[in-house]
Amino acid sequence: MSEGADPRNVGEQLAAERARQELELSDVAARTRIPLRHLDAIEKGEHDGLPALPYSAGFVKSYANMLGLDGQALSRAFRDQIGGEQRAYFEPEAYEPVDPTRVPSRLLAMVALGIALLLGMGYLLLRFEGDSTDLAKLAADTVQDIRPVPARQPASPPIAPPAVPAVPTGPISVTASEDAWVKISERDGPRIYFMDVLAAGRSFTLPEDAADPILRTGRPQSLKVLIGATELPPVGEPDRLVRSYSLKRDALVAIATAAPVSAAPEDGNASDAGSVPEGGRDLPPIDAASPGRAGTAGPTGDSDRRPQP
After folding, report:
1. Is 258 left (phi over 0), alpha (psi -120 to 50) or beta?
2. How far apart are CA 220 and CA 182, in angstroms?
3. Of 32, 120, 130, 271, which has the maximum CB count within 10 A?
4. Residue 68: CATH number of its domain
């Protein structure tokens, strides 16, 4: 504390001035917004209950300024007072010389250091002996892998199975786009279902009980074979005689569904190599009184067909 200063501590000076102004401690707390317990501790010198020194010194300054005193000087005096108390509280321990006989010799210290180094090296060797990856990382240290990352190949879309064509159903019929002589009969039997000129726009429907029917015509380009509403490929090449085109349901279904089954007759010949026009040497004359004619196809194919006697 400087010469000429008030011998009382800062708390006593603040308490005396407050009493002189006839103020209660609660009035000071209300004006300064300092907690009442901190103001009480400052006045009583109970510094253990105060917060850190910068906050406590700020409280003293605000308290003194409110009373009209020199807050800066009292705050500095409060700091000096607290610092003096802390220095007086600290008591350093007396230094006791070490007994020279208890200090290890330099040789012993070097031996202990060598043993510690050997143990450390042995631990590192045992640790990295079976782990070449860590050794490679230690050797490379900060070397950066600049190899390009291979691009991911896009996954190929799944291959959809080929669509299976639907099996056509319905009656088997032969329709003429132009007038054409047609004979439909059993392959190995005398039964003739139709033998006449099939007029343009008319059709003949094969009966369901037909076993192995075949078609014979000289104008295959004028005929269409259908299973229900499904039209089959052409019967043969234009203006070439077709001797025995199979109208058996299994053979026609195989053609409609593109199965590897030929619609040709059993002997492998769907038509002759030669071309014979309608009315040629292999075709009977077109005569309404022809004895071999089974009937005439009507608009629906079955209504005007007369049965074979």
Report:
1. left
2. 9
3. 271
4. 1.10.260.40
- For residues 282 and 109, what is the distance between their CA atoms, to the nearest angstrom? 129
pLDDT in tens, 114-159: 999 999 888 888 876 655 555 555 555 555 556 777 777 777 777 7
pTM, 2 dp? 0.35
Closest CA to 250 of 241, 239, 259, 242: 259
Q: Give a yes or no: residue 20 inside a domain.
A: yes
Q: Domain residues for 36?
A: 10-89
The tens digit of pLDDT for each residue in 292-304 reads: 444 433 333 443 4
Residue 192, burial from CB neighbour count under 10 angstroms (0-12, 13-18, 19+)? middle
- What does the DSSP 8-state code read for residue 49? G
Looking at 41, 64, 89, which one is the last position of a domain?
89
187 lies in the same domain as 303: yes
What residue type is assigned to position 206 of the chain?
L
Contacts of 244 (CB under 8 A, 6+ apart): 187, 214, 215, 216, 265, 267, 269, 270
Angle between helices 36-44 and 53-67 (to 10 degrees): 90
Looking only at the bridges linking them, the beta strands covering 230-231 and 223-227 are antiparallel
Q: How many CB atoms lie within 10 A of CB 206?
A: 22
